[in-house]
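CORE FACILITY INTAKE
Project code: CF-77B
Contact: R.S. (postdoc)
Sample description: multi-component assembly, two entities in total
Requested service: structural model of the whole complex
Turnaround: standard
Below are the sequence entries exactly as provided by the requester. Do not edit them.
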Amino acid sequence: MMSAAITTRPPTAPVPHAPAAGGTRRRSRLRQRLELAFLLTPALVLFIGFVLIPIGVAGYYSLYSWNGFGPLTDFVGLDNYVAAFSGDVFQGAIGHNLIIATLSIVVQLPLSIGLALLLNRKLRGRTFLRMVVFAPYVLSEAVTAVIWLLMLQPGGFIDEILRGVGLGGFVQLWLADQSLVLYTLFVVITWKYIGFGVILLLAGLQGVPPELREAAALDGASAWQTTRHVVLPLLGPTIRIWVFLSVIGSLQLFDLVWIMTLGGPANASTTMATYLVDHGFKRYEFGFGSAVAVILFIICFLFALVYQRFALRRDTQGALTGVR
Amino acid sequence: MRSRKPLALFAAAAFVLAGCGGGGGDASTEGPVTLTWWHNRTTEPMKSKWQQIADDFHKTHPNTSFTIEPLQNEQFQTKVPLALQGNTPPDLFQQWGGGALADQLKSGKLADITQASSGWIGPLAKNADGWKTGGKQYGAPYLMHAVGFWYRKDIFATAGITSTPTTVDELNAAVTKLKTAGVVPIALGGKDRWPDAFYWAYFAVRQCSVDTLKKAVEKTELTDPCFLKAGENLKSFLDTKPFQDGFVGTPAQQGAGSSAGLVANGKAAMELQGDWNPDVMQALTEDKEIGSKIGWFPFPSVPGGQGDPSVLLGGGDGFSCTTRAAKACAEFLGHLVGDDVQKILAETNSGLPVTPAGVSALKSEPHKQIAEAMTKASYLQFYFDTAFPTKVGQALNDTIANFFAGQGGPDTIVKSVSEAAAGNK
C-alpha cells in the first residue's frame, strides 16, 4: 500500500492505440488479457492466500471460544467482541493508541517540517546532518527498544546525562511511573521515526519549484511568508501522506512497547496490538485474540477509507482511483 | 471437518512453499525414522551438546536420525499450537508440562508414552509428575528447576548479616540491615511479570498445606482462605519496600540494570530467581569471580503458615512426543534421562538433573545445595502459570504484576483465577 500511496500521479494517461483492422484489435486485446493474467496471478495468489483468506479466517475464529487446539466447537457469537470492548484494559489500550496518534500529529509533524526546512537549506555538513536524522529509522525496532530500555533504567545513561548537565531534578522513573511511561515511549517513537518524516518532506521540498520562491522574493515576501504561503501549501500532498502513515503506524504500535514495557506497568502502556498478543498468544485464547485482531483491522481500515476519501482524494487521483 | 478446511489449505500452501515432502514412516512400525526435534537451547554450550547427544544416539540406533530445530523460548508459544493443529507437528518438542500440556492434549497429537516409558521413568520419581495428566505420561523432563534466593555473600558480610534468613522475620531484618548499609536489599525484574509471581507463589506455598495446593491446581480455584492470607502476607512484605526504585519497569535478564545485572554488579544483595541465575548473572558482569561470590538459600518459612517449609517452587524442561514416531521418540527420551546424558547435563549447570545419578555429578556448590533441597522437598509446586491452564496462569501473573504496581488487593489475585477459568477476559 505504501509504495502505491507514495507514488504520486502517473505522468499521463496511456495513449490509446491507433485504430487498426478489427482482427488485429481483437487479437491484441486477447493478448493484453493474457499478459495481465500472467503478470497479476502470482501477486494475486499471494495476496489472497496471505492477506484476504487469513482476514476471513480470523473473522471466523473470532466467533468461537478456542484455545488453538482441536476443532472449533464452542460457538459464542459476538461474545468475544463484547468482552473486548467492555474490558478496562482494552479500552485503555484504544485510548493509548489514540494518544500516540494525536501526539505524533501535534508534535512530530511540526518537528519534521522544521527539520526538513532546515536541512533543505545550504549549510555546512548538510549530508552528514541528514544522515544523523535518518539513522535511527534504519535501526530495527527491536534494537531500538533494547537500547532505550537499557538507557532508561534508573541510574542509566539518560539519568546520568541529566545529572551531568545539572538537571538531576528532572530524573524520573521513566518506564516504571504509570503516568509517565506512555510519554516516555512516545519520545522513543519520535526519535525512531522522525527521520522518516524528514526524508519524506525533503523529497517533497524538491518538488517546490525554485522559480516560485524567487517570484515570491521579488514580490517582497519575507522568508517566513514564502514558507507559509508558497512552500507549505505545495508540501500538502506529502504532509497528508505522512499523516496517513503515521496514524496507521500509531494504531498498530507493537514492537517498541512490547520489548520496553510489555504494556506495563499495570497496563499503563498497553496498545491494541500488545493486548492482542498478550491475550491471543500468551493466554492461548485464539478465538478472543482473533476478535481483537479483527477490531484492530476494522479500525485501521475505516480510518484508511475515510482518510483516502476525504484527505487524500486529490493527491492520489489516478494512482488509486481510475484515470479520469 | 468443516472447521479444518482453511488450515488444511494453509498447510498445503506451506508444503508447496517449503518444498518439503514430509519424512514418511508410519506411527509405530519399525524402520528408519527421522525425528524432527524442536528444543529451546539456541545458545552454546547446550546447542552443540544436544547435537552431540543426538549424533551419539544415531550411532547406537542407526534407524533413528534427527532434524534439529532450535527455537527461542517465546517462539514455542506461537509455533506449538499451530504445529499441533497442522498435519506435520514436530516429533519431539520442548514441553514445560502442567496446564499447557493439558491444553495441548486437546489437539490429539501428543503421544501417550506411559507404556513406552515404563522401563526408564522409575528413577525420575516425583520429577516426572508434571508431565503426567490423568495418570498417563505425555512427556518427560530432562532437567528440573527450582526457585530460591540468590544472594551476594560479600554484601551480606559487609551489612553484618551472619546467617541466611530462615523465616520471613529474619528476611525483613536482613532487608533493614542492607538498607542501612546503603545497598538495594532485593532486586526484582517486575517488567517481565513472572518474577513478581514467584513471590506470591512462595507466600502461598508457605501458607497453604500441600493438600490445599494440590486441590487448588486440580480444581483451578484459589478458594481456600490461605491464598487470601498469602496475598496479605505479600502485602506486608511489599510494604517494607525491599526492592530497587522503579522495579516495575526493570527487566529480569537484560543488561546491567536488570535485576540479575544489579546483583551481578553488586548494586543489590538478593534476587528470588531460578537455578539458572548464575549463568544469567555471569553474562551481565565483567566480574569473572561472580560465581564464587553468590550463594543460595530457600524461601524462608512464614510464621503461622500451614505450608511445609521444605516445599519448593519450580518446574522443569522436558519434551513431549507426537504420535507419528512415538516409539523412537520415547526411546530417545529414555536415553536423555539415562545416566550418561544426565551427567553431561549436570556439568552444564543449566538445571537440576532428574535422576540421582545425575545429581551426584553436579559440580557447583549452590546447585548441589538446590538439588539436595529438591530431594528433601515433600512436594514441588509447579509455577502457578504453568500448573494452571495457560489462560488462567497468565491472568494470574498479570494480576500479581498489577498488585506489585499498586493495583488491586489480595482478593483480586484470588478472584483472577476463578474469573479466568470461567472464561472472563
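Facility notes:
- Chain B touches chain A through 51 residues (CB under 8 Å).
- The domain at 28-145+314-366 of chain B is CATH 3.40.190.10 (D-Maltodextrin-Binding Protein; domain 2).
Invoice: internal transfer
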